[in-house]
Amino acid sequence: MIMIATDQQENQLLIKLQSVKKIYGSGQAAMEALRGINLDIEEGDFVAIMGPSGSGKSTCLNILGCLDTPSEGSYSFKDIAVEKLSRSQRTQLRRHYLGFVFQGYNLLSRTSALENVELPLIYRGVHIKERQLLACQALQSVGLGGWETHTPGELSGGQQQRVAIARAIVTEPAVLLADEPTGNLDTVRSHEIMELLTQLNNDGIAIIMVTHEPDMAKYAKRVIHFRDGLIESDKQNGRKQ
Amino acid sequence: MLWDTFILALREIRRHILRSFLTILGIVIGVASVITMVTLGNGATVQVTQQIASLGSNLLMVSPGKRLGPGQASTAPLFKLADVEAISRDVSSIAAIAPASSKAATAVVGNENWSTTITGTNNQYFKIRMWPMQSGRQFSDSELRAGAAVCVIGNTIRSKLFGGQDPLGKRIRLAKLSFEVIGLLETKGQSTMGQDQDDLVLIPLRAFERRISGNQDISLIQVSVADGISTEKVQSDIAHLMRQRRHLAPNEDDNFNVMDMKEITKMLTGTTQVLTALLGAVAAVSLIVGGIGIMNIMLVSVTERTREIGIRLAIGALEREVLMQFLVEAVALSSTGGLLGILLGLLACMGLKNVLQVPFVFNPTIVLVSFLFSAAVGVIFGYFPARKAARLDPIEALRHE
């Protein structure tokens, strides 16, 4: 059943970038971070974006995550023209379809794991009972059952990143965007996180991940290399079933 | 959603208890000091008014010299007993009239001595001042006529010179002369001006003229107006009479002054009101300093919280939801601080009321104004920096360190 459903989803186009440019600054000082990107991502895909520093991979992820807007070009998400949306409409889009995992975890300090995970549900207007239930389930699914009341200060880096992932998936997003999710972790923890992401991908969530570790990119179905604001290569990984 | 925002805001306050406490502290101190100062000032004004009212509203004081301002008068000839007799004879509707001449002197009993004021007057003095005897008697007619060496003393004299013992029949040395104590006045306490009213020795006017001053000058005439008669009428009658007696030309100013209690009230309440305003100004400064404290904490905490705002925006909070949370936080903190300040201020007033013996006068306006001011400062400086942060691109806010 899941396989069939996944197959159906994979055929549907989720994201389409057309000649997207991002220019920082203006005039002489203008810096082109993205110089015309064309990219299609299907539902349920697992994409790793790689490339050296300054190649535009994080900029691209931020645009995909509607945290930033392209200077030129078009971005359609589920056939919605994102570049035409207002600020609050983009927020609505983020709220309903996107989940974020950051390199620095970005959890609210002095706030329990459960409350951190509840946060996106609060903004969705989910009732408190249901909210706590969903948040508990999300924490269990990342292997943190029993750690609900711990604050980020009391958790290890790997655990904090798991909380961040739980926060990202608690809303059942269509896409999980991860900016170097293993950047602050040791090898063992990194592989644990990647296995968790793979498992989530198998459950049907599309994952777009920026990384510069080839070991981590191996978990993805598709690896895209950026160089100087352009896509250098775009290969399917052998892993895809 | 609003309820959730409220819960979110309260959680944030609880989580950052020190920061919240510091924010509140500025408001509490500002509000409490304004309320305390103004309430005590108002209390003092009311006290002055009450004390003057207790003197009797039908009292007129005739003093030589033109009044220039509070407590100041130009020099002018003093009165004579003939002036008192003239007023008593020619002005109608007078219930009582008492001349008074005073001089500072040292009173000695045995080894004890005490600097006090000796006043020469007559029995009308007790009536005008509504001052009954605690024990003993007033002056007899023969004593008044002869200027006998007898005196009526206040309670301070008794405690200082007789050690609280019954002074009647004992003798006091005043200006090298021995006076017999024939009466003791009831305790009156402090006057409005802070003088001890019980620190006085009264002797017959004639005794004062002959034995103390050596002249027949009278420095003050106190007049009690009969009930139901307007003091203004008697006041102008006396003034008219005195101008005649002093042969003043129509273009000359009065070189004496007839003051009624209303004027004295006005003068004294004017003084205390200036004091109240001064205290209020000092308190207002502390409120402003408190406001700056709130402003600082709010500004610092919002800058510190830009990353938090970024996180909230990234995971799907709308700008207005983030703002609402900060607004609720600011309102909750400011109003809590304001209420605590009001409570503390009123408690301080209650406490100081007994220490300073000033009546407690509740002034809702000043409570409201100081509360609103501090609340406004808290809300404005909680809200606007947050708005600036919430308008950033989420990614920019996230990068903020």
Structure description:
Helix content of chain A is 36%, strand content 27%. Chain A has 241 residues and is of the alpha/beta class. The longest helix of chain A has 16 residues, at 187-202. Mean pLDDT of chain A is 88; it is low at 1-10. Chain B is α+β, with helices and mostly antiparallel strands. In chain B, 40% of the residues are buried. The model of chain B has no long low-confidence stretch (mean pLDDT 84). Classes of the chains: A alpha/beta (241), B alpha+beta (401). At the A-B interface, helix 3 and helix 4 of A face helix 1, helix 10 and helix 13 of B.
Instruction: Please state the structural category of chain A.
Output: alpha/beta
Major sheet of chain B: size, sense and barrel closure?
A: 6 strands, mixed, barrel
Share of helix among residues of chain B? 55-70%
Low-confidence stretches of chain A: 1-10
Label the overall shape of chain A.
Answer: globular
Major sheet of chain A: order of its strands?
A: 6-7-8-3-9-10
Q: Indicate the mean pLDDT of chain A.
A: 88
Q: List unreliable stretches of 5+ residues of chain B.
A: none
Taking all Cα atoms into account, the compactness measure Rg of chain A is 18 Å
Biggest sheet layout of chain A: 6 strands, mixed
